[in-house]
Structures are given as C-alpha cells and as structure tokens.
Amino acid sequence: VTHSVPACIGSMMINGKQLDNESPVSIFAVNKCYATVQEGTFFDGSGFAALVREGYKVRSDVNITLEFRTTAVHGVLLGVSSAKVDAIGLEIVNGKVLFHVNNGAGRITATYEPRGTNSLCDGKWHKLQANKSKHHISLIIDGNLVQTDNPYIQSTSADTNNPIYVGGYPADVKQNCLTSKSSFHGCLRNLVLTKGQQAELFDFSRAFDLRGVFPHSCPGAEH
C-alpha cells in the first residue's frame, strides 16, 4: 500500500502508552479531525488542486458543473489557461461568481450577482453550471441563468492543452482568465466537465499536485 488512509485515527496506544499526537516530531498532510463532516473536498485557503497533468483541451465546447460552500467572498474556483491568451476561468470576486472565456480574440465574462453580497458566501452549498458553446457562454447559479453577449463571434475555440487548476494556482503559472489570486477557502464537490456526451467526474484524491487541499471530507457546515 503506497497511499495514506483517508480517515481519522485517535487514542493510539503502543505498549500501553498513549501516543501524543498534539505535538508530533514531524507532520505531513495531516489535518485535524472534525466532529461533523460532509462529503466533498476541503480547501484551506492556501493552495490548489492540479488535475490532468497531460493537459485539458477546452476547444469549442465545455460544460462545467460543481457545488461549492464558502464563507469567503473571494476565491478562485477553476482555471485552464494556455501560455497565450486562450483560457477559461471561474472565480468568486466580492461575492459574485464570474465565468471568463477567451477564445483568442478577447476575454468575455458572464457575471452572477446575488441580491445580497454574502448570499452565495453563507456557508451553504450552492450549485454552479458554466457552459461554453463556441462563442456563447452562460452561467447558472442555483437555477438562475446569466448569459452575456460576445462581440467576437468568429472566434469559437479556446485552444488549451494545460492542467485544470482548482481552488487556486501556483505563482509561476499564467491564468489569463482569472482576475483573483486568492485561493478558495471552503468545500467543493461533484466537479464534472462534460464535452458532448462525455462527462468526466474529477476525484481530487487523484490530483497530481495538492496543496492545502484535503480530498476526502469537509468540516461540517459552519454555524
């Protein structure tokens, strides 16, 4: 077995003596256990998850669905960006959700603005769907649809072949369709990217780089 156990371990005794896990000699990728947990992936606000090392090709069409829960009004949700301008990005800025797409001719943005500044950042689960179909983009948050006009109708394909960064990204990686550098603090679950009939559910425990991300559980909802 080469991977860690996704679980909580407590009250460990060796030869009748209890181990002190409050002050370990060294610690790596171990988080505290929570009295109540939910299914999902916890992002502690310091890092990111990197998926698809070999590169994800956005091209003309992609549909992204996920659920998020946060109390922070800023945070990167997802980005895929080429070294040029072609890219897509999803982020929370000032309590609004922004979906940016650049097919090469210029960035366009669909913005979902809730009625109250904190109504999306209330520590409850919210459903997000971001759709790019050639030059059309739309955003659906909790069933509310936002669409935006695209003046660049000749440009339809975001030519990427790059990793998907979720919850943030490394300082040395360019993200042309993200305005925020704030790492996401909260929980995500059910991240699915769909192209045509092919839907891919991403398991964060299979990320090729995880920093400040705990893939197997979320602390229970904050009260």
UniProtKB/TrEMBL annotation:
Residues spanning the signal sequence: none
InterPro entries: ConA-like_dom_sf, Laminin_G, Neurexin-related_CASP
Segments passing through the bilayer: none
CDD domains according to UniProt: LamG (cd00110)
Gene3D superfamilies, alphabetized: 2.60.120.200
Span of domain Laminin G: 38-218
Protein name, per record: LAMA1 protein
Gene source species: Urocolius indicus
